[in-house]
Write a structure and sequence with these properties.
The protein has 474 residues and is an alpha/beta fold. 34% of the residues lie in helices and 19% in strands. The chain binds zinc ion. The site of zinc ion has 10 residues, from loops.
């Protein structure tokens, strides 16, 4: 069973006026949530099957399977036709496979939609050609992008796209190759809205005005790095927000951090990371001390590495808090805490309980990636990663790219209908296992095993690795 009503904190009398504990139905809470996030939701006259799938269910994880299958098929048929018609590159790719929108008639045809390898998105040229390349991935009509420089670097190209109203973001690997994804505003809104709604569904209304949150990641409002970028929406939802990295980080700087390069300057950058790390840990601890008596909610949100560093320091100082039900922890980005060490999730939750007094059911991890707008959030009961299956179809493939049945480990791919500005049909480098139902809770949709692994060749990519390297030089 999932347990929604017990720990609800609800609006009474409207937005930002008064909040008291109660047990209003989730539907009423989500109505308030949608009202608050109105600017992220297209006006009803403009809704497509993708919007039906994303915005109409009050909880994306509890839609009855028949209904979800219908919503998912319509959304993916719409999305596939949209990219086929408006993206020359993707259309010619599909033609090589002899696939066209008319071939997708039932849900059994969906696995035949041609997937793009995630490697494609990091195989970009430099300079002005980089801009052309970004434009070629983009589906539909690009806004007018003005690049003033004759020989622009990647930062300048990305900034020019974003000045034209896009939200181009990136994630990087150690080889210095960045993965760039060109989102338009609507697609980015989808990603943000989905993230907020999915966390809300699993934390059952513990999101309120009267809360304070510490984001242990770069400030999403001024950065294009994808680590935490979608949490920008939380500034429209929550009370006070603090951020761990207040400055704007250039691609060049991230490249130095990730690639151990840059000579003397690179060394300085890494030293600054270590200082930043110490400062932030002190700052978080001070904040926790200020928060410990507050009746309101206290949330920590960010990369496991940084939270782990905070917990370790608190243990060293022999300091313990008792936030209990007033606390929450949300993590994302991957679980490597050192180059060759993965932090076991159960151990982490135990440490959160031991040091902060926050029970495991309020400590949730999220699996997502720069290429997708789907968020797999853990359920509080069993910590399996639930899939928002009304608009997002997970797939697992064998080494010959044949789809595998439920329960088998293989290469993870997905069909993401919420990607409107680039084809969101992607084969990732990660290894995953899908279960038809959660072994622990009653939510009816598919789940991923929480132990998703980066494929060996991709081991050093991902948002948490970037954040970790921004703070350390290990
Ligand atoms: Zn579950």
């Amino acid at each position: 069973m999932y347990e929604p009503a017990l720990w609800f904190v609800l609006p009474k009398g409207g937005v930002g006026i008064d909040y008291t504990r109660g047990d209003l139905p989730y539907e009423d809470y989500i109505a308030h949530f949608d009202e608050r996030l109105r600017k992220y939701i297209p006006s009803p006259g403009e809704w497509t099957p993708v919007d039906d799938a994303l915005f109409s269910p009050p909880d994306l994880y509890t839609v009855a399977p028949d209904e979800a299958t219908k919503l998912q098929l319509a959304a993916l048929q719409y999305s596939f036709a949209h990219h086929y018609e408006h993206n020359d590159l993707y259309r010619s790719y599909c033609q090589q496979y002899g696939m066209a929108p008319a071939d997708i008639r039932t849900e059994h045809d969906l696995a035949r939609i041609p997937l793009i390898s995630d490697a494609f998105f990091k195989n970009h040229p430099e300079g002005r050609e980089f801009a052309t390349w970004l434009g070629s991935i983009f589906t539909g009509k690009l806004p007018t992008v003005v690049i003033e420089q004759q020989h622009p670097n990647c930062d300048q190209v990305v900034n020019a796209f974003n000045a034209a109203g896009m939200v181009v973001s990136y994630s990087s690997g150690t080889g210095g190759r960045h993965t760039f994804i060109p989102r338009d505003r609507r697609t980015f809104n989808n990603a943000e809205y989905a993230l907020a709604k999915c966390i809300l569904a699993m934390s059952c209304g513990r999101w309120i005005d009267r809360s304070e949150t510490y984001l242990l990641m770069p400030d999403p409002r001024i950065n294009t790095i994808y680590a935490g970028k979608s949490t920008e929406i939380m500034f429209d939802l929550l009370g006070d927000m603090k951020v761990g990295i207040k400055q704007s980080l250039s691609l060049n700087l991230i490249g130095m951090v990730m690639g151990n390069r840059g000579g003397f300057k690179g060394t300085l950058v890494r030293l600054a990371g270590r200082r930043r790390s110490r400062r932030m840990i002190d700052d978080v601890i001070k904040w926790l001390e200020e928060r410990q008596e507050s009746p309101d909610f206290t949330f920590l949100c960010g990369a496991p590495y940084l939270l782990h560093a905070v917990l370790t320091e608190l243990t060293r100082r022999n300091k313990r808090f008792e936030f209990g039900e007033r606390g929450g922890v949300v993590t994302g980005g991957g679980w490597k805490i050192r180059e060759n060490q993965r932090l076991p999730l159960t151990e982490f939750r135990q440490a959160v309980f031991d040091v902060l007094g926050i029970p495991g059911r309020y400590c949730l991890d999220i699996y997502g990636m720069v290429e997708s707008n789907g968020w797999m959030v853990q359920c509080p009961e069993g910590h399996y990663l639930h899939v928002p299956y009304t608009y997002f179809k997970p797939l697992v493939f064998d080494t010959e790219q044949k789809p595998l049945p439920y329960g088998e480990w293989g290469r993870f791919g997905f069909l993401d209908a919420a990607a409107l500005s680039y084809p969101g049909f992607i084969l990732t480098g990660d290894t995953a296992r899908i279960l038809e139902r959660c072994p622990t809770c009653d939510r009816p949709g598919p789940v991923l095993d929480p132990e998703v692994k980066r494929a060996a060749s991709q081991e050093d990519r991902g948002c948490a690795v970037e954040v970790r390297r921004l703070f350390s030089s290990d």
